Amino acid sequence: MTRYYDTLLEEQRGPFTVIVDKTWEDLNPRDLFDDCDIEEICTKIDNYTYDWFMLRTRVIFNEVELAYTYLGGCLYERAADVLTDGTAEDQIYQCLLEAKTPLKELKEKFAAVDVDALDALTV
Question: Hey, where are the domains in the chain?
Answer without folding.
Answer: 6-121
